[in-house]
Design brief:
With 349 residues, the chain is an alpha/beta fold. The protein is built from twelve helices and eight strands. The protein has an eight-stranded mixed beta sheet.
């Protein structure tokens, strides 16, 4: 199975299809939030070309890295080939934005799309009420929260190895003794950003630490189709912050704005208010949902998705589960259109 998924390089997004258009939204604190739109392949479905549905996608990156420029490699070809428009929306990265503020960014993107997609795609080319939401990893958290918050609710929710349980034990094993080896960004700088985040300084894009160290700037520009993106000081600082949050296991307290020195019960009480798995206990219905996960995921335990599926079925929701044997976190990056998975996006139809 290791040979199938190969190196870390293989688990980075492949170059995005160049059929998109880029747009910007005036976000909070003067930050311009990007929206990237890929139109459906109407020519492949001439009888269904008009009034196609659309899906709003939120990227992964532990809430503090990644970019909306490049959803998982299969997302755009998989959905657009089924006559579904794809919209990938930026959100402000933690810790300069909380989970609540990230959700606000995505809700703003949703509202913007409802008003602007008919103009961008053609008045008769999009059915604005046939909406799906999806996301990978941290974006899976966002997708589930959008499924709970949007009114009317989306037609389908796609959760790709989403971190849907903010109370999971591994989130709360804080490490106070991080060994810091980054020679470009000091630990003091990282901690200053964590303790006093300036919302006007929020980043929207950041490579993962391994990516920043091993993938050239020009390669990332090519993969993301973002020629103006650079490994700037701000980007390097954001990647360092992401690295520290992963090493310290303090990502969730900073994300939900709770003091990590407070009693654990108090920290978790705040996190519970934003944890999709627990929020479902207050629901009586939920949209049809598709869940994708690798069985060897070490970042987001597989059991999260299994628990989610059980809870959704208890609510009477239609659930599709697709588990990749031996798949690590982000295993789906090796697929342009995952065999079998692409058949199921017709849930939105």
């Amino acid at each position: 199975m290791k040979d199938k998924f190969g190196s870390q390089q293989a688990l980075l997004p492949q170059p995005v299809p160049r059929t998109f258009s880029d747009h910007e939204i005036n976000g909070a604190h003067g930050i311009q939030l990007g929206v990237r739109v890929w139109p459906a392949h109407a020519s492949v479905h001439p009888l269904e070309a008009r009034r196609a549905p659309w899906i709003l996608w939120s990227h992964g990156g532990a809430y503090s890295a990644g970019s909306h420029y490049a959803p998982p490699s299969w997302v755009v070809p998989g959905f657009t080939s089924k006559n579904i428009h794809v919209v990938s929306a930026a959100y402000r990265l933690a810790p300069h934005a909380s989970l609540a503020e990230q959700l606000d960014d995505l809700l703003q993107a949703h509202d913007w799309c409802r008003h602007n997609l008919p103009r961008i795609l053609g008045l008769d080319m999009v059915d604005i009420d046939r909406l799906g939401v999806g996301g990978d990893s941290a974006g899976g958290t966002h997708a589930m929260l959008l499924g709970l918050k949007l009114n009317p609710r989306p037609k389908v929710v796609v959760d790709v190895y989403g971190n849907v349980d903010l109370l999971a034990p591994h989130h709360w094993r804080h490490n106070r003794d991080v060994e810091w080896t980054n020679t470009e960004v000091s630990l003091d700088t990282v901690k200053e950003n964590l303790q006093h985040p300036d919302p006007r300084d929020a980043a929207l894009h950041a490579p993962f630490p391994w990516e920043l160290a091993n993938v050239s700037e020009s390669t990332t520009q090519h993969r993301w189709a973002a020629p103006d993106f650079t490994y700037s000081e701000r980007v390097r600082r954001q990647t360092a912050i992401k690295d520290y949050l992963a090493l310290s296991k303090l990502g969730i307290p900073y994300l939900v704005r709770v003091d990590h020195d407070a009693p654990l019960q108090q920290q978790q009480a705040v996190a519970r208010k934003w944890s999709p798995l627990q929020l479902l206990d207050q629901q009586t219905t939920f949209p049809p949902s598709a869940i994708l996960h690798g069985t060897a995921d070490q970042a987001v335990p597989l059991e999260m998705s299994r628990q989610l599926a059980r809870k959704l079925r208890q609510l009477g929701a239609e659930v599709l589960e697709s588990y990749e044997d031996g798949g690590p976190h982000a295993f789906d990056q090796i697929y342009l259109v995952r065999a079998g998975w692409s058949l199921h996006v017709v849930l939105m139809q």
